[in-house]
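Pasting as-is:
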Amino acid sequence: MALVAEELAELARLPDSALPLERMAALISAEHQGKVRAEDISDAFNQLAEEFLGTHPNPADPATLTRFIHEVAGFRGNTDDYYDPANSYIDRVLSSKRGIPISLALVHLCLAERIGLEAWGINFPGHVLVGYQGLDQAYVDPFSGRYLSLSDCKTLFKQNLGPRQAFSDHYLRAASPRAFLLRLVENLKQVHWRLRDWSVVERCLIQQSTLTPEVRDWLLQRGIVREMRGDLAAASQFYQEVIETATEATLKETAIKRLTAMGASKSTLH
């Protein structure tokens, strides 16, 4: 586990354009589950790519690959248990062929790279999408395998954020590998927060800090997690660090309020 964390930290120091998305997603899964090898995940993708290339002419096109992923290989959204943590682990998704939008988007990206297609993830609000070079004003919904027009995306946006929210084309921009990985970990963190599985939540926060060490919000959240676990001394240290290093006023204010409330709570104990 320590070696996995060290490799993830080493890779995270690379510039965005050089981040190996597949390997880092595999390392994220391995750090949470233990007996997961990034090489096995790579082998599974290689096998899928070989199967595709063995039955489809080269050069391939986005429509053919999308059809292969969803109709031939059988990947689809896990509508039965959307909040199952396994939906966020790429090794489990490759095994079960069930996932959530971001993990299924990763399947698209990893296979597209192997067969010579240019594809990118899109951190669309509430639902990750996939863009492909050659698809004009159309995007792939990796959860269903459907194509979405710009009009469809605007409708999905309103469904996710409400009718009063204004749509902008920037919501359809390509996500950097770092932003994509952050969202992958965020989904996993939110699932375990629901389950109040604080040890996993904190591991997710450490991974997010590894990806973006300059973000002080991760420290604030680690303080909250420690507070929830009853480790008030550690919580206090995290809050103090936020107060001393954060540039965002709202983060400082929240840390001060929680630290003050925590002190008041301690003073009532006899």
